[in-house]
Design brief:
Length: about 300
């Protein structure tokens, strides 16, 4: 009964998000490039991309298996094009942090598939939840699919410091991800035994960060055991919590998928200094049907099994 009520609530909330399809005179949410052009489009995006430097090696030493955004996006677009994902029939949905650095990857995928539906919030958690996901699914073209990309992010500064990154116009090489590091410090206060007892409940003025701090709690020992590598381990721990949440949300909302189901990519977004490509460490790349079942894993096709 409660479940039925929840489904009804999700359906009606999704309807509230509904927008009419674009007309010839309205702004379109798609770039309307024709089938097959996605591969050309991604080539053009990166045709002037900077060549790899020693800094790129620093990033891949910290996170082995991480791909530059150029390699990551090129491979994803090519693999999905072979599965029938075109610019016309694919809705892009992301769950990435609020930080403007998290937009870099999103902006590049927008150039291929059009504007994204935003499911994410602080630390990249899918705070839009079941209702947001239901609304997103309702916006997938009738004969199409959605591509979901989610992950926490982490900065790697030019000197190799993990958890910090250079930003344009700011002299201070500052924390990245700030939300994740604040949650890590909160957790450290608990595991070290020095945290103050508080009777404060979660506040609406900062409820996303309150949730991040709850979601990191199971990883206290893991992060303490990481010692000096705590900042390296932090996004990986957050990813595990986020992956569980996203899997639940996808399963609950899969009934709304259209003809071709969804592709779900999860991983760690790695931000670098302004003059260098960002990186992405892919940890999941699944095709999911409208019953919420994983029907194929494509992770190997963009990692060790990739062929030009
Ligand atoms: Zn962040």
């Amino acid at each position: 009964m409660l479940r039925n009520a929840t489904v009804l609530l999700i359906a009606s909330s999704a309807a509230a998000f509904q927008i009419s399809r674009p007309t010839a005179f309205s702004r379109t949410t798609s770039l309307n490039i024709s089938e097959g052009d996605v591969v050309e489009k991604v080539k053009n995006i990166y045709k002037d991309a900077p060549a790899p430097t020693d800094y790129d090696k620093v990033v891949t030493d910290v996170y082995p298996g991480a791909l530059s955004n150029k390699d990551f996006q090129t491979r994803v677009v090519n693999v999905l094009a072979a599965k029938g994902f075109t610019a016309d029939n694919t809705l892009l949905a992301t769950s990435l942090c609020c930080d403007e650095l998290a937009r870099r990857l999103e902006d590049d995928f927008n150039k291929v598939y059009g504007n994204n539906f935003n499911l994410g919030g602080l630390s990249g958690f899918p705070f839009a939840g079941n209702t947001g996901f239901g609304a997103m699914a309702a916006h997938i073209p009738d004969d199409g699919s959605c591509l979901i990309i989610h992950g926490p992010h982490v900065g790697v500064a030019k000197d190799g410091t993990v958890g910090k990154v250079e930003r344009v116009g700011i002299a201070l090489v500052d924390n990245c991800c700030g939300s994740a590091i604040a949650a890590s410090n909160y957790l450290k206060g608990i595991t070290d035994g020095g945290a103050m007892i508080t009777t404060a409940l979660q506040e609406f003025t900062d409820f996303q960060q309150g949730a991040v701090q709850e979601l990191i709690l199971p990883h206290g020992k893991r992060l303490a055991d990481a010692g000096e590598d705590r900042m390296r381990e932090l996004p990986l721990a957050l990813y595990d919590s986020q992956d569980l949440l996203m899997q639940d949300i996808v399963k609950a909302g899969a009934g709304g998928f259209k003809k071709n189901g969804a592709a779900v990519i999860g991983g760690i977004q790695i931000n670098t200094a302004p003059d260098t490509l960002d990186y992405f460490l892919p940890l999941r790349f699944d095709l999911v049907n409208s019953k919420g079942q994983i029907i194929d894993s494509l992770l190997n096709e963009i990692t060790s099994g990739w062929k030009e």
